[in-house]
Amino acid sequence: MSINITRTSAPVGAVITDLDLDSISSTDQAELYQAWLQYGVLVFKRSVQSADHQMKLSRMLGETVIHPVEYMRQKDEPMLITLAANEGKTVPEDDPSANDVIGIIPWHADLMYTDLPTRGSVLRAIVIPEEGGDTGFMDTARLYATLPVEIKTRIQGLRILHSYNQAHLAQNMVKGSSTLFPDVIHPLVYVHPEAGLPVLNISPTSAKALIGLPDDEAKELLDYLIKHSTREEEAYRHVWEVGDVVVWDNWRTIHRAYGHKKKYPRVMYRTTLRSDMRTGQYLAA
Question: pTM above 0.90?
Answer without folding.
Answer: yes
